[in-house]
Write a structure and sequence with these properties.
This protein has 489 residues and is α/β, with parallel strands linked by helices. The protein contains eleven helices and 25 strands.
């Protein structure tokens, strides 16, 4: 079986030129040649910010860039036709498409309604801080620009638990509608973290569930995506996606893999969610991301031998999608926790060149982020290719030093010239003797990242002594693999 690699095919500050679907279509063949097996596309439906909306300010999920709403026909990324052509181009290239699903909230309502509401504490949504009173809430969604095409369902206050703005008093707060309760099985941060933003969907309302099921079938029938990235799952009833995914998988007759965003560094919370939802999805390994941040900002005082400790990929590797950074962690975003540039190659080696988990590469790391003058990660393309072609066989770990760690992959018969030795250091460089196995005895290896120029010959047991520079990583491959990677990338 070939190793899989996902690409998050966007970053927050893409130009607002409505051309991104065309870019994705144009890049499909080259991404496939690089070794990308799946692409996570940004939310494709109309957001309240119109052509400036990254996609998480959801307004109309039936408008894929087709109707004149929120000041534009196309979304930030392009039109419905361009979106569907991008999906088709990716499919022709053999790449699976993961659609971004944002169902926790709605913004940009078409009209207000008077609703009786109680204000809850921002840091404890289980505690009311004011008596019930009428508020003017933006909760009526009629989608006049779409005129009922695809669906005649409209939203009103009864479909939501609450909101964060009273336009009568011009006052911001956490307003829960009288007669409603926040979803009970959610993250416990702030007492109950059901509420995130906008008008929060009431997932105990049968009308809401029925509409989300109808929309899911419509969206799948329209796009024929291969799976889903699920937004903000910690803020939604933990069994909602168990139901929603099961219905879609049953109706489509396909597996439709999914990966959820449960943003927490606490491993126990991720594992609890997986248990409650019946392991109906994988989760992004947020604890691993924070391990990378700690290691990169600890001035070589972090114990690199523990880099994988208390992470999802270590404890439940089949449930883990690993990543280094994403659109939320990039500079100036709400969850900004950017992994410094010097550590990026080390972090990518740890997710791309190991057997456990499915890695997700960030678009901003692959092509750069012009908005913040951030360059692409050096050597990233070679590591992606090395994963696809050469990262196979038995894995031996050498996590036996606080600063200098490594591992080897012995290669297998199904992948010619496979087998790698990886060594990295967050401090001054050094050497480490590591074994790849007797099947590679006598072979010579070179660093495909070109950080080291030596040629290493393995002994009769398939062992070699591999060097690495300070604050660096070296990826040692057989000569034939070295030539394939360095002459083409």
């Amino acid at each position: 079986m070939e190793n899989k690699t996902l690409l998050q095919a966007f970053e927050w500050y893409l130009p607002e030129d409505q051309q991104h679907w065309k870019r994705c279509a144009a890049m499909a063949e080259s991404w496939a040649a690089l070794g990308i097996s799946g692409v996570w596309l940004p939310p494709a439906y109309k957001g309240t910010g119109g052509k400036s909306d990254v996609g998480y300010g959801v307004y109309d999920t039936y408008d894929l860039g087709e109707f004149d709403q929120k000041g534009t026909v196309a979304t930030k990324y392009g039109t419905r036709a361009e979106y569907l052509e991008a999906v088709a181009a990716l499919h022709r290239a053999g790449i699976e498409v993961m659609a971004d699903i944002v169902l926790n909230h709605r913004l940009g309502a078409d009209a207000q309604e008077e609703v009786l509401a109680v204000q809850d504490a921002g840091d404890n949504r289980n505690q009311a801080v004011a008596d019930p009173r009428p508020i003017q809430a933006w909760t009526k969604f009629t989608f006049p620009g779409r005129k009922g095409k695809y669906s005649d369902f409209t939203w009103n206050w009864s479909h939501f638990d609450g909101t964060d703005w009273d336009s009568d008093w011009k006052y911001s707060g956490i307003f829960r509608f009288v007669g409603k309760q926040w979803d009970q099985e959610t993250d416990s941060e702030n007492g109950n973290y059901d509420y995130l933003m906008g008008a929060d969907l009431d997932l105990s309302n049968p009308e809401v569930i029925a509409e989300l099921d109808r929309w899911g079938r419509w969206y799948y029938d329209t796009v024929k995506m291969d799976g889903f990235r699920l937004d903000a799952v910690k803020h939604m009833d933990f069994t909602f996606f168990t139901h929603w995914l099961d219905a879609l998988r049953r109706d489509s007759g396909r597996d439709l893999p999914a990966v959820g965003e449960y943003w927490s560094w606490e491993l126990d919370k991720l594992r609890h969610y997986l248990d409650v939802c019946g392991h109906c999805m994988r989760l992004f390994d947020v604890p691993l991301h924070y391990q990378f941040v700690k290691a990169a900002t600890s001035n070589a005082q972090f114990d690199m031998a523990q880099i994988l400790s208390n992470t999802l990929v270590q404890t439940e590797p089949d449930a883990a999608v690993t990543f280094v950074d994403n659109h939320d962690t990039q500079p100036s975003q709400a969850l900004a926790s950017w992994v410094p540039a010097w550590f990026k190659p080390l972090a990518y080696a740890l997710i791309l060149l190991r057997k456990e988990g499915i890695p997700c590469v960030f678009y901003g790391d692959l092509v750069g982020i012009p908005h913040d003058r951030i360059a692409p990660v050096m050597g990233l393309e070679r590591m992606i290719r090395a994963r696809r072609d050469y990262a196979y066989g038995d894995q031996r770990d050498y996590f036996d030093d606080a600063n200098l760690i490594g591992w080897t992959l012995s290669g297998d018969d199904q992948h010619p010239h496979s087998g790698l030795a990886v060594i990295l250091s967050d401090a001054p460089g050094g050497i480490k003797t590591m074994e790849l196995g007797r099947t590679l005895a006598g072979k010579t290896m070179r660093d495909v990242l070109m950080n080291q120029t030596e040629i290493i010959q393995l002994d009769e047991n398939g062992c070699g002594t591999f060097p690495v520079g300070g604050g660096s990583v070296s990826v040692w491959a057989l000569d034939e693999a070295y030539d394939a990677l360095t002459l083409t990338l």
